[in-house]
Structures are given as structure tokens and as C-alpha cells.
């Protein structure tokens, strides 16, 4: 069995964003040479997310509104976590959207369902963060 590992780096200029990282993940798969196996893609920061969904701007706006209703950024003093930092909402949003995506690799390709893409969700941006891509298989 072969194993491949690579870190992707992101510095999002805004506090929140959704970025389609499917092309970068597909490039990792090509570099790995693995044709059959599993690919794990996970955020390596507690205020960022990796998830699978449709690349549709209206849906992304819906995600933003939904998350902001559940865990509004402000007022900062509504959260016990906020003191030294002001990012309690980002921790909650990450928990809702998830930490990672696992995708089957079949015949050297990501085995997606219709419209599926991999996204990086940023909830406390303006600094560098990492995403891990780990692929195992043959």
C-alpha cells in the first residue's frame, strides 16, 4: 500500500469565505500516483472547515446566513470564550460544517457524486492556515 501526504496553505483576506479546493486536491491525487484507495482532506485549524457540497453561489450565501443565525460573530461579549480572542463564533461554525472530507479514489479519480466538490471553509481568516491531504491505496 502506498501513502501520500501534502499540506495546502491558505491565507484568506476576509474573516469568512468558502473556497473550492477540488483542483488542488485533484493535483495531489495525480502527484500520489494512487489509482484505488481513500483520500482524506482535513482542516488543520480549529476555526476552519473542509466539507463536500455543490459549487453554487446562492447555496454558499445560504450557508453564510444559516451559520450567522446559529452563531453570530457579534456581539463578541455573548461568548465566554471571547476574551483574549474574538473568534468563539468561528469555533462553533467549524463544528457545524465539519473538519474533514473522505473521498473514495477509483481508477485514479475522485469518486464524487453529482455536483460534489471539496471546499475549504474559513471562519476566522486573515492569517495562514493549513489543510492536510492524505491519500492511501494502490
How is this fold's topology laid out?
Blueprint: E1 2-11, E2 17-20, H1 22-32, E3 37-43, E4 48-53, H2 57-70, H3 88-97, E5 100-106, E6 109-110, E7 117-122, E8 128-137
Antiparallel strand pairs: 1-8, 2-7, 3-5, 3-8, 4-7, 5-6
Structural notes for this entry:
The chain is elongated. 25% of the residues lie in helices and 38% in strands. The protein is of the alpha+beta class and 138 residues long. It is built from three helices and eight strands; from the N terminus they run ββαββααββββ. A five-stranded antiparallel sheet has the order 1-8-3-5-6, with helices on one face. Strands 2-7-4 form a three-stranded antiparallel sheet. It has a single domain, classed as Jelly Rolls, CATH 2.60.120.
Task: Summarize it.
By secondary structure, the chain is of the alpha+beta class.
Please count the beta strands (DSSP E, at least 2 residues each).
Answer: 8
Can you give the mean pLDDT?
A: 98
**Which structural class matches the secondary elements?**
alpha+beta
Name the CATH class.
Mainly Beta
Terminal CA distance: 5 Å
Largest sheet: 5 strands, antiparallel
What's the total helix number? Answer: 3
Task: Give descriptors for this structure.
25% helix, 8 strands, 3-stranded antiparallel beta sheet, elongated, single chain, 138 residues, 5-stranded antiparallel beta sheet, alpha+beta, Jelly Rolls
Amino acid at each position: 500500500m502506498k501513502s501520500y501526504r501534502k499540506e495546502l496553505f491558505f491565507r484568506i483576506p476576509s474573516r469568512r469565505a468558502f473556497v473550492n479546493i477540488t483542483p488542488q486536491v485533484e493535483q495531489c491525487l495525480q502527484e500520489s500516483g494512487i489509482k484505488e484507495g481513500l483520500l482524506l482532506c482535513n482542516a488543520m485549524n480549529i476555526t476552519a472547515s473542509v466539507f463536500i457540497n455543490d459549487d453554487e453561489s446562492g447555496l454558499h450565501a445560504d450557508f453564510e446566513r444559516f451559520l450567522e443565525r446559529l452563531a453570530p460573530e457579534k456581539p463578541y461579549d455573548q461568548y465566554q470564550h471571547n476574551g483574549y480572542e474574538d473568534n468563539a463564533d468561528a469555533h462553533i461554525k467549524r463544528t457545524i460544517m465539519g473538519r474533514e472530507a473522505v473521498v473514495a479514489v477509483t481508477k485514479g479519480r475522485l469518486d464524487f457524486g453529482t455536483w460534489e466538490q471539496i471546499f475549504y471553509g474559513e471562519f476566522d481568516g486573515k492569517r495562514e492556515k493549513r489543510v492536510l491531504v492524505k491519500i492511501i491505496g494502490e
